[in-house]
Write a structure and sequence with these properties.
- By secondary structure, the protein is of the alpha+beta class.
- It is 24% helix and 28% strand.
- The chain is built from two helices and seven strands; from the N terminus they run H-E-E-E-E-E-E-H-E.
- The strands form two sheets. It has a five-stranded mixed β-sheet with strand order 1-2-3-5-6.
- The longest helix is centred in the N-terminal third of the chain and has 18 residues.
- The chain starts with a helix and ends in a 14-residue tail after the last strand.
Length: 145
């Protein structure tokens, strides 16, 4: 797996398979959709959720998002941050959208407020970063129910 499209597809299907295994019916749309990668419904409760998947193939706990993700907030929208760990024991970090939005907004502002290594101000940009360094959201399946 050596390109971003393959990595993204692998993450999406990995998440869809896990959702199916855990009592959801998952649908991965055939075409690119705005703001989500998977639609799922809990087969027991009929609760519907939309999922945005962000995948890295490496052993890291940091994923890139964009400024638009600061405004994607809904009780039924979740992020699955997948670390494929080079296909050795992949990990899911499952986070409600309101937590992601708050986290990336605050961390970006903190970065802007901190001077660079040469004492310069950072230039604003649309990139955001979500991190789960302490595994707070690792296998956080309970938040979906």
């Amino acid at each position: 797996m050596n390109n971003n499209i393959s990595t993204g597809n692998c993450g999406e299907y990995f998440v869809a398979a896990e959702l199916e295994r855990r009592g959801f019916t998952a649908a991965v749309p055939m075409s690119n959709t705005k703001d989500f990668d998977i639609l799922a419904i809990n087969r027991e409760t009929n609760k519907q959720i939309a999922i945005q998947v962000k995948t890295t193939r490496f052993k890291q706990k940091s994923w890139t998002l964009s400024k638009k993700n600061e405004n994607i907030i809904d009780d039924n929208v979740f992020y699955f941050f997948v670390a494929l760990n080079e296909l050795e024991n992949p990990e899911h970090h499952i986070v409600p959208s309101f937590i992601v939005a708050k986290s990336i907004k605050e961390s970006h502002q903190s970065w802007l407020d901190t001077l660079g290594t040469k004492g310069q101000k950072h230039n604003d940009n649309s990139m955001r970063r979500f991190e789960d360094l302490d595994d707070k959201y690792l296998d956080n399946w309970d938040c979906l129910y």
